[in-house]
Amino acid sequence: MAAKPNVVLFFIDDLGWADIGVNGSTFHETPHIDALAKSGVNFTHSYSAHPVCSPTRAALMTGKAPQRVGITQWIPTNAKVALPLSEVTIGEAFQDAGYRTGYIGKWHLGKADDVQPQHQGFDYTVAVNRAGQPASFFYPFGKRKGGSSVPDLENYKKGDYLTDALTDLAIDFIDQKSSEPFFLCLSHYAVHTPIQAPADLVKKYQAKKEKMYGAGKAELLEERYGTMSTARQEDPAYAAMMENLDTNIGRVMEALKASGQLENTIVVFSSDNGGLAHRKQTGGPTSNLPLRSGKAWTYEGGIRIPTIISWEGKIAPQESKTPVITMDIYPTLLELCGLNARPEQHLDGLSLKKVLEGESDAALDRPFLAWTYPHVHGGGHKPSAAIQMKGWKLIKFSDGKTYELYKLTDDLGEKSDLSDQNPERVREMDALLEKWISDTTPKSTK
């Protein structure tokens, strides 16, 4: 058992595809994440299962499209919605295989005591709050409207920063002496709101903003339903959060190296949805350009995310354009670790092992990727669904013009709607999309 590889899964909140340097950011500084990407496989066409957090987190845990488990919207604090205990989570799969399992940080898959990570396959569960965001990123991590306090951090002091604290806990977990391999999910609250960061880093990016852009403000781009998205990355506090996050990714990687475990540890880095670039009137604290829009929308900016898989000495560094999605993480890690697949559980995920070994996109037998977000969101989104296949993407809206069709291979920014010129393609893709939604939605919730 000791020969089995460890797993560290970094799951970042609201991290956009373009937020990291290796994917094109010039305002944010992310040298440790960039180094991780260059040490393994950087999936440049990676997607979240959903444009908001709770559904994607459910997909990560189960390997299923979110609607299969009844989670199609972020879970409000007072809601009774939760990840069903009947699901065999990725944590339980590794626990069953003799792994020491840990979960640190944001869960957002139910409020009740009996649906927390310790009841879903994680031996060690710490710093899990009962909301979608922390009340504050600074100690005592509370006393802010719209969030909730983060527990288990009473030993910290005024001025201490949440992302640092979670990393301390992760390093403690990694350094525990054990004959068992470990599976650790480090689910950072960063870079979700509230947008707060250490003052020295904020000052650094205030100066950088002035040097790069002067005193002018970023342009706002008008989007569907009269909403706005931000046209460039320039928010000093957000950039400071990014640098702090990056530093803490580096701390974990250094801890693995110092403990002699790096070469026997698979590292996965991913996000739950696109960056917060799109709100009703003000835009957001980041920009996802060249992708369109952001979190809560089925445009590329809302669902395309960073995903990196690295295993020192075992996976050759490369950049992959293979379209992959959140549900793939579950079966991929099982196969990489030599554990039995659970096809009846991770129904919508495919193992990426062949892609990681350098085989072509054709190694994945997947005809399309699809999404459904049948709810209104505070950022202005109205119900939509989307399907992507063979370089084309169809978005179907419930309000206003029904269809938008884009050829992503020529139009990554989704600027030229080709639906009117391609009625047959629209009908074909719409039929596949509706069948997928029907097939993956339990009858009790239709």
From TrEMBL:
Cofactor(s) required, per the database record: Ca(2+)
SUPFAM superfamilies associated with the record: Alkaline phosphatase-like
PROSITE patterns tied to this protein: SULFATASE_1, SULFATASE_2
Pfam families in alphabetical order: Sulfatase
KW Metal-binding (keyword) present: yes
Lineage: superkingdom: Bacteria
Chain ranges of the Sulfatase N-terminal domain: 5-338
UniProt-recorded name of the protein: Sulfatase
Lineage of source species: Bacteria, Pseudomonadati, Verrucomicrobiota, Verrucomicrobiia, Verrucomicrobiales
